[in-house]
Amino acid sequence: MGFLVTTLIFFLVGVVAALFVRLCCNGGPSTNLFHFTLVVTAVVCCWMMWAIVYLAQLKPLIVPVLSEGE
Amino acid sequence: MGDYHSHGGGRGHGCCPTMDLMRSEPMQLVQIIIPIESAHLTVSYLGDLGLLQFKDLNADKSPFQRTYANQIKRCGEMARKLRFFGEQMTKADISPSAMPVTRTHIDLDDLEVKLGELEAELIEVNSNGEKLQRTFNELLEYKLVLQKAGEFFYSAQGHATAQQREIEAHQVGDGSLDSPLLLEQEMLADPSKQVKLGFVSGLVPKEKAMAFERILFRATRGNMFLKQVAIDDPVTDPVSGEKVGKNVFVVFYSGERAKTKILKICEAFGANRYPFTEDVGKQMQMIDEVSWKISELKTTIDVGLIHRDSILKNIGYQFEQWNHLVRREKSIYHTLNMLSLDVTKKCLVAEGWSPVFATSQVQDALQRATYDSNSQVGSIFQVLHTNESPPTYFQTNKFTSAFQEIVDAYGVAKYQEANPGVYTIITFPFLFAVMFGDWGHGICLLLTTLYFIIREKKLSSQKLGDIMEMTFGGRYVIMMMAIFSIYTGLIYNEFFSVPFELFGKSAYACRDSSCRDATTEGLIKVRPAYPFGVDPKWHGTRSELPFLNSLKMKMSILLGVAQMNLGIVLSYFNAKFFRNNLNIWYQFVPQLIFLNSLFGYLSLLIIVKWCTGSKADLYHVMIYMFLSPTDDLGENQLFPGQKTLQLVLLLLALISVPWMLFPKPILLKKQHQERHQGQSYTMLQSTEEMLELDHGHSSHGHGNEEFEFSEVFVHQLIHTIEFVLGAVSNTASYLRLWALSLAHSELSSVFYEKVLLLAWGFNNIIILIIGFIVFIFATVGVLLVMETLSAFLHALRLHWVEFQNKFYEGDGYKFSPFSFALLAEDED
């Protein structure tokens, strides 16, 4: 699963979550915008965390060196 | 229709669509003129509504000068009576029952009368009870005296008589020369006088018994005989009501003088005297009589207590309701005191802040009050224009209120500035989770907080301790923290520090099938990178820490730069909202350029290094970008054109500093001069006109600011220095995300390996159980409680300082409306 595919998956999850929140708790345009902001912030935070950890392991400079007794 | 109020350089909105909670609700200053007859009811209905913050229009008056001081005194008296009832109820162990009472409307005057009656009745019952109790105790003591004294009386009397005869014989012998006439006369008068002894009987406290005896001896010169018998059980003293150990005593004396002395001594020692008859028959009769009186009194006392308890129970049914009513009335009168009395003394004028959306609700309440109080005239509601800064009001629900409180704890938002609470709802739990990352611990936290949330209806009406109250109040915050912790735990691949291969096979494997050099050279990467999170093969290896440290440090920098950029962008939205173009061009833009040309560039380098796998040393790159920017990069080159890019970025950063510093004060000065351009012409005319215009000028309001250029410049200088130095220090401050995450994973791994695995290794069931218990306690105490608090605190600091100092002013004041619901919370 490449970087772009997983990014696309995060994006789709975000879209689904936004739609879900809109359907279940609809409360006027300003409330909808507020919920949308929350969903987008959450998805962006989670994606950043995943992307950072993924990119760091793409081309690593050091490899695991097992300790004695493993 | 709502009205927005101008303040300073004009306010507006409409740059972007409105979002809940982003900016304070628009507030307006309203003035309400209320006729006196409907004043009380109006304030009561407005208190029910809870959307109006009254201004104190009588601030210069002392509490005694205010209109409704008497009413408040009455309410105070009633509150005192209710407190008295409360104390009596606790003494009698009766708790106010929460019986669902019918919502009958109770008039305050009726209540006052009733409370007075009840208080008088209760006081009377209490004092009667006390009197009866004292008599009862006295009778008990009398009975004891009768019983005990009867035992030793005759022997004591015999002794006393013998002693007296001796003493008299001595006296006759000694005093023959002195005043013989008198003695002879006495002897002659009663030669065959029987030795007449008087006696006093009663009870004396045990501890004073010795002193009692001594003083009696000295006072009567040994001319007395005392016999004491101790009583085994403590006796309730009638005067003090406490149980005291006492002795029954009988004192035999002769002569009137001795008698008065003995009586006085008894009084001084608190010895209670009781009459005693020498006649045996009469003694039995007395004992029977006393016993009968005792039983009668007992029933009387019991009946009295039952009566009192029934009074208290009746009070108890309505206690809460009465308390509530008195508090309510007191607050209404306090509010009425804040209103100013009109000149005609026929109506009250109220001023207050109220949200614009509540206008129709307030007007509706006023109408209802006019109707319900049968007033001829309705209240007048009008909106005032003012330059005062309104209070800040956010409409929060039970989920968002906890996050808003976290933001407010640092500083309440200025009226209508961007509220960091919107983003804090997500970023605060997220940053917590970056420092806490373990999905096992996250699940524990989630279960705990779900318990609170599921039982929240029941728990919110109970009274919890301080710590539980705080935890309960923050249950939604903790829930978000737990959910994000599960996510970051999956990314860090730690379940109580144990990694799992949940998302596919690990990317690393031995070089060859024998794994000879796994402990020296290490494994090699045979598959594409592990798709989600940290590769499970890293845990426990020797190179785990260097790898994870590098990863987490870089992650902290990336997250930190992202959050700081968000802060700067919010400052742009603030400037746009308040139509402050100066702030956009001469603060937002240079700040953005400065931060991103240095730390944004560093973030870019990090990502490029990861993507290309280059061995470039980023410390070296950044430092030499400043020290010798024109030097060749050599092996630290990550992409072509890097040197030119670095030069350009360095230049941008350098010019952005004076760009932040100089233009804004100069332009502010120019603006100020333009505003008062007209003034400078009129000042050439006569002084009277100038004074007139001065008055007119000050009444305009916003032209009243003085402009001190040096002050504004210094302010901008401080702001610039803070930003420039803060850019470095704040970015470094985000490294605490790495530090705490490392501490957490190390602690977790130590507890797992050195406690659980060690206990497992012994192959003994008892040691395993002990080890497991120690592991549970250590995990809960250190990791779930201490680490949670620690990560909570640091995430809070990152928000309050590093995020909010990019855009937040936080010098507003909170909207605190007159509301009965809030009153109840305050009292509890």
Automatic annotation (TrEMBL), chain A:
One of its GO terms (molecular function) is proton-transporting ATPase activity, rotational mechanism. Pfam families: ATP_synt_H. The chain crosses the membrane at residues 33-56. The keyword Ion transport applies. Residues 1-18 form the signal peptide. It is a multi-pass membrane protein. InterPro entries: ATPase_V0-cplx_e1/e2_su. The keyword Membrane applies. Coiled coil: none annotated. Keywords: Hydrogen ion transport, Ion transport, Membrane, Signal, Transmembrane, Transmembrane helix, Transport. It is found in: Endomembrane system. GO terms for cellular component: endomembrane system; proton-transporting V-type ATPase, V0 domain. Its main location: membrane. Belongs to the V-ATPase e1/e2 subunit family. This is V-type proton ATPase subunit e1. It comes from Elaeis guineensis var. tenera (Oil palm).
From TrEMBL, chain B:
It is found in: Membrane. Residues 101-135 form a coiled coil. It comes from the Eukaryota. It is a multi-pass membrane protein. Keywords: Coiled coil, Hydrogen ion transport, Ion transport, Membrane, Transmembrane, Transmembrane helix, Transport. Pfam families: V_ATPase_I (PF01496). GO terms for biological process: vacuolar acidification. The chain crosses the membrane at residues 430-454, 475-492, 555-573, 585-608, 644-662, 765-786. InterPro entries: V-ATPase_116kDa_su, V-type_ATPase_116kDa_su_euka. GO terms for molecular function: ATPase binding; proton-transporting ATPase activity, rotational mechanism. Belongs to the V-ATPase 116 kDa subunit family. PANTHER family: V-TYPE PROTON ATPASE SUBUNIT A, VACUOLAR PROTON ATPASES. Essential component of the vacuolar proton pump (V-ATPase), a multimeric enzyme that catalyzes the translocation of protons across the membranes. Required for assembly and activity of the V-ATPase. This is V-type proton ATPase subunit a. It comes from Elaeis guineensis var. tenera. The lineage of its organism: Eukaryota, Viridiplantae, Streptophyta, Embryophyta, Tracheophyta.
